[in-house]
Amino acid sequence: MKTIKNQNKNGRPKKAEADKKKYKLTLKMETKEYFSFKAKVHLSGLCQSEYIRLCIEKSEVKQRLSPEHLGYIRQLSGMANNINQIAKRANAAGYLETHKEYRNVIEQIDNIVKYIME
User: Fold this and answer.
1) What gap in Å lies between CA 78 and CA 84, rounded to an integer?
2) What are the pLDDT digits (tens) for 16-31?
3) Dihedrals phi, psi of 43, to nearest 5 degrees
4) How many Å apart are CA 98 and CA 106, to the nearest integer?
């Protein structure tokens, strides 16, 4: 008589722990949002869960401005105000007197913009 050693060899292989869907989210929506969501899911031909997973995977979230960047924006706003004052003086007194001040402000603006772009 023969005995079968590995009875469970056939069938679906076990998923790795990282591949299992073990987290559940709850979401509240307004009626308008809900029916808009249902319509989009219907048009996509996917189930709700798969549609949401694809939305999360394909979406791109823009980072909020950091306090440091907000400070730079305030500095740029102040410099824009300075440029307006320089332009007013240049029109009243003549361009040659305000040329040096204008160049300093432009250099400061360039430095801030370069730093933000890095």
Assistant:
1) 10
2) 887 888 888 898 999 9
3) -65, -35
4) 12
